[in-house]
Amino acid sequence: MKVDGTPYRTIWLGADGTTVQAIDQTLLPHRFVVRDFRTMEDAEVAIRTMIVRGAPLIGAAAAYGMALAMAADPSDAMLARAYTVLLESRPTAVNLRWALDDLRALLAPLPPAQRREAAYRRAAEICDEDAEICRRIGENGLGLIRKLKPRDSSGRINALTHCNAGWLATVDWGTALAPIYQAHDAGIPIHVWVDETRPRNQGASLTAWELSKHGVPHTVIADNAGGHLMQHDQVDFVITGTDRTTRGGDVCNKIGTYLKALAAHDNGVPFYVGLPYPTIDWTIADGVRDIPIEERSARELSHMTGRTETGELATVQILPEGSAGANPAFDVTPARLVTALITERGVCDASEAGLLSLYPERSHAA
Ligand SMILES: CSC[C@@H](O)[C@@H](O)C(=O)COP(=O)(O)O
């Protein structure tokens, strides 16, 4: 996607052929800064501190982390260490494990001298594949948007989204936002209600930024406003991404997604989820019980960072001294609340039968 006319992906290989570069998402929307990752540890820190975030981008960054590890030391010991260190950087997005398993299976049988080149080549392929997958999710989601009739008299289609599942969360295009970009580009009058997404504000900071860079009309709302808007016919569909979706169609996504799905269900508003195949965890049937939910620091609740009127970035405390905070970063929306899953292969029911209709080769997986 473009930033002020210049095409960008979220992560790419630097001109020296070794350093990996990525947009620093902790500074958006106020500063556009590109970071260099020179070591596997740089990639690990970037994932853990959310310089890069969003399930598909976490997978891509982990793949490049493995490549950086192999550039430093292509031994078996380093391969095992890089796998473990990177896997522990964040627990919920299954794309991380998917990418590391993919790289390890490719690299382990190779002689060490061939591992560096193979790892960089595969990391670049994963990035290209993610961009193409997301473009296809966009096409498949566009088909659904074309069938919607506006509920209110504005003549526009109103989407509601939570967190950031746009191009910043992937390598390019996004998952939830790809159909919205394609609808906008096709001339469909579409407007997006953007949940601010406390505590880290991925909606207010990232989704709003990338929609404005693409010229998509949008309005940021407090996280709790969505139910009210749905009761008053101001939301035609809800669309989110996901960090892990079970083989039965339970959707794990940013904390607060479940409440949006409940409100959508109560108001007869379609609730769609965009996802690429590496986000499906075929090993888990019950998402509420079995998906690991990341607990993040209470500091994300107690402090907020923003731009002052004089243009500097400043961090302020908003909780009283001594109040405890709890910060579960994700929740699980049961499949029964999901109208449909939108994948690169097409649209299906949020159920095992639905997913297997698109991925029949997985029917053997337990
Ligand atoms: C295409 S991204 C889907 C999800 O990764 C996204 O909605 C999300 O929850 C991101 O969480 P984050 O904690 O910002 O990494």
TrEMBL record:
It catalyses: 5-(methylsulfanyl)-alpha-D-ribose 1-phosphate = 5-(methylsulfanyl)-D-ribulose 1-phosphate. It comes from the Bacteria. InterPro entries: IF-2B-related, IF-M1Pi, Initiation_fac_2B_a/b/d. It is an enzyme of class 5 (isomerase). The active site is at D243. Keywords: Amino-acid biosynthesis, Isomerase, Methionine biosynthesis. Its EC number is 5.3.1.23. Pathway: Amino-acid biosynthesis; L-methionine biosynthesis via salvage pathway; L-methionine from S-methyl-5-thio-alpha-D-ribose 1-phosphate: step 1/6. The keyword Isomerase applies. One of its GO terms (molecular function) is S-methyl-5-thioribose-1-phosphate isomerase activity. Substrate binds at R53, G54, A55, R90, Q202, N253, K254. It holds the Pfam family IF-2B. The record marks C163 as: Transition state stabilizer. HAMAP family: Salvage_MtnA (MF_01678). PANTHER family: METHYLTHIORIBOSE-1-PHOSPHATE ISOMERASE. Belongs to the EIF-2B alpha/beta/delta subunits family. MtnA subfamily. Catalyzes the interconversion of methylthioribose-1-phosphate (MTR-1-P) into methylthioribulose-1-phosphate (MTRu-1-P). This is Methylthioribose-1-phosphate isomerase.
